[in-house]
Design a protein that fits this description.
DNA-binding; mainly alpha; 7% strand; homodimer; 3 strands; 6 helices; three-stranded antiparallel sheet
DNA sequence: AGTTTACTTCAAAATGAATTGAACTGACGG
DNA sequence: CCGTCAGTTCAATTCATTTTGAAGTAAACT
């Protein structure tokens, strides 16, 4: 063992610019953290990076700030911010003195998580349930025990589907305990 | 409302061949179910389709059977079966009379789910924890309350990470209850 | 009115992952 | 041995998604 624990090869999306490298390093680590997490959740890197850079800043950032700190195009910043606003991950705070809108992370991560579960998991499980109903109806009634085998397999899937559905609210409750 | 509940546009991977259309319809529905689910889990369509077609058959299927029922290349069948064997989703049963290996689904879905949680979720959360440790060390000590803001944000992420870690075994236990 | 600033839009390019298929390996039968 | 059958491999291709950037819009300033 000669190398330290270098978890991931670093996304290289953060530009140092003229800020203290101490700050840029912190931002880099934060952006990488969210980029990693996003990969698991199926969110584009640029979107995760924007959230990361906003999260890493103690003060709200303007569009221009984000553009300057990240090595991504203006178009991506625009689209990414739209997505993040839509899901409530960042919110605009109007700056008094200036004309540009400023963005800060919405720290109610609870809500984000809940929304994610709702949108992706609950939706998928609901659709799965419908599909399984169709499957149960479409069961081919082949001879012997064959029909029985298939019936039991479909039933097994239905059991899993409903268990997963039942787990969702439990998970939600658990994550909310003293957030 | 004029249209029925057509959950998804159908993957079109199942070939009817010369089997009864009743059977092909069932297979189609099953394959689509797994293809959908796989999308959520980040598994390639072809792999999900192979699992689906095997799952939809009361009798074990040979390599050639799978190739004939699905509209995917021989190469994909080979690679897909390898993946499925590696994660224990299908198992080989040697056919007495014939020389070809036959495949059937490993119905211990519990194990599959547990393995998935282990590999994807637990791994990701573990890496996240390391990253967060790094982040905590890299906290830039800017003036005023700024440092405090960042410290509290990092702490918040750590709290979430550990909650998620704590949830995993709970979820596992819940899903195992009377499977 | 005209210019600048601040952002949005979207068609085209880049990226990255899955899929193909032709060449290959090796076991079996003749 | 030689040919065929059964499956594997992997470079090249296709496909889907993300990213870019140039052109467009609109509000704010002068």
């Amino acid at each position: 063992m000669t190398t330290a624990t270098l978890i991931t090869p670093a996304s290289g999306l953060v530009l140092t610019g003229d800020r203290p490298s101490e700050v840029a390093d912190f931002e880099r680590a934060m952006v990488d953290f969210f980029v990693d997490a996003a990969e698991l959740l199926g969110v584009p890197k640029s979107v995760a990076a924007i959230y990361g850079i906003v999260f890493a800043s103690p003060a709200p950032l303007s569009f221009a700030d984000i553009e300057a700190r990240l090595d991504i195009s203006k178009g991506s910043v625009s689209q990414g911010l739209r997505v993040l606003r839509e899901v409530g991950a960042v919110k605009e705070v109007s700056s008094e003195s200036d004309r540009a809108e400023l963005f800060e992370p919405d720290l109610e991560l609870r809500k984000l998580v809940a929304r994610f579960m709702e949108n992706r998991l609950a939706k998928q499980l609901g659709e799965g349930e419908s599909r399984l109903d169709q499957l149960a109806k479409a069961l081919p009634k082949g001879r012997h025990g064959e029909a029985a085998v298939l019936r039991s397999r479909v039933k097994q899937l239905q059991t899993w589907n409903s268990k997963a559905r039942a787990l969702l609210p439990i998970a939600k409750a658990f994550l909310n305990l003293g957030g």
